[in-house]
User: What shape does this take?
Amino acid sequence: MMSITRLIKEVLVMFLGILTLLVAIFSVIGGYVELKRKNFFGVGFAAVSVAVFGWFSVMTLFSIIFTGGGGTV
Assistant: This one.
């Protein structure tokens, strides 16, 4: 039986993982738009954002799905 506080924690961590995945997806879109404008500073910033937020979201969701825990691996 799972306690209510653990359930709330896991839901919040899952929400954080999905939210950071959305940030990574929007960064990919923004990087594409800035590449079309030839704004390479924006492309670089988008690439760093995709790397950081993408890694965090993938590892958080991986941790929740496969290990049953919250937080990053």
In short: DSSP finds two helices and no strands in the chain. The mean pLDDT is 88. The two ends are 24 Å apart (CA to CA).
